[in-house]
Amino acid sequence: MATEIVLISLLKILVVVLTILTCVVFLVYIERRVSAFVQNRVGPNRTGPYGLLQTVADVVKLLMKEDIVPRNAYKAIHDLAPIISIGVALSTFAVIPIGDTIELFGRQIKLIIADVNVGILYILAITSLGVYGITLAGWSSNNKYSLLGGLRSSAQLISYELSMGLSIVGVLMVSGTLQLDKIVQHQTTYLFGWLPAWNMFLQPIGFITFVTAAFAETNRLPFDLPEAEPELVGGYHTEYTGLKFGLFFLAEYANMITASAVITTLFLGGWHLPYVEYVGLSSFILSLVYVGTFCVKVAAVMMFFIIIRWTLPRFRYDQLMNLGWKLMLPITIINVLLTGIVLLILH
Amino acid sequence: MGSNGKIIRKKDLNFWQRMYIPEIAKGLRLTITQMFKPKVTYQYPDEKFVPPPSFRGRPVLVEEQGVERCVACGLCSRVCPALAIEVQASETELEKERYPIKFEINMVRCIFCGFCEEVCPEEAIVMSNEYELVFTSQEEAIFGKEKLLTPIEKLRPRLEWLKNNR
Ligand code: SF4
Ligand code: SF4
Fold first, then answer.
1. What predicted TM-score, i.e. pTM, was given to this entire model?
2. Residue identifier of the C-alpha nearest atom 8 of ligand 1
């Protein structure tokens, strides 16, 4: 029995990691294409049909490149930093429910790698580790721009972690559990009999603040100050080449996928497709539909991430801090209070 | 700055503009509509850009009835800010009496400023519409007379444009 659980878990890990890596490849392609479309260009369209193999070619290029370590860099940490980044980015996915249970080979399998009962805390804890990768990379490169990038990123992540945590509190109060699949289960009901009880509708303020904080946590525009090309060359990864640079790149996009998955799980009803349980599909097909729904929702959120990148300009550093401490933090606290009052009245 | 060129101060913003979210929605609508506008890209190697006559491509020597117009006065070489031109004069039986025995433009140095064209008293050197310049060595980038001489028929649009715009 024990070996069986280990085997199933390993299989799940393999599938999820491979899926994420493949998704990253296509995500980069889609990002480049959509960016191009927004700017009335066509984007990569030569390598393979519709340019689909462009990222593959880029990966090959990155693999072949020489690995340069600056002379005065701290070699061990310089090597360690990208590993931390990518490890953190991939391990967050462990607690995200991809679908309901599925019946395979006469066995009920939960579509979640680790069904821990403090899923949200795990995500918060692991994502805050990500700052080590970036800060250490900036520090060990022995380059002032890298260091500035690393410092900015640690300040940014710490400021926004607070509002991120507090915006989740509202969700936790509504659903009364820390377990992510229970939270999704909670969202499968209906409000007034027709509106899906997604936390997006139950917690609109929390939703907006959480999405904003997620943008900041993933270093995406408008909060990409750690990279800020015009000011910092490339930020924390200026001194990285080849495979190690590739790992940072991968971690960034994997983080984006994870952030989208977390947003989907917490606020957009996770794998649940409204009204589909009334259609009367067999349980196996229903499970597949749920997995598909999850993927579509995550893809939609990622699309939002990409389009926002070309809509909003980068914040200045003081604006970022003002927004984080003077606006987001009070709003999230008020949101927690409001949620508490409403819950008290309802019960 | 607003779209009408007026400066917008923070205190003038109304409540909804301060809330930021509706403004983000407006911005998103703009970016999404842009996505479906026609593209402006030339698919370069397949589809080439043909420049208008006002375009400053690589400088070439005008060839009229089999000989260059140039009288080797050396003005272009003198005015060239990048010191790209080298002219060596010699005598000829033709009416113009002087001709360049050697005329070289170093295309690695040339900055396509068009000063040579402007200064030439004979309208003998003009900017063509060629922009595809590829070399694999420094030596290859030095264009001698054989590469510079261009029949006048090909340069008519530019000469016409020069006549009207100078
Ligand atoms: S275009 Fe300018 S730089 Fe080029 S050869 Fe003529 S004068 Fe020199
Ligand atoms: S191209 Fe014109 S300016 Fe240059 S040497 Fe010949 S005649 Fe003189």
1. 0.78
2. B80
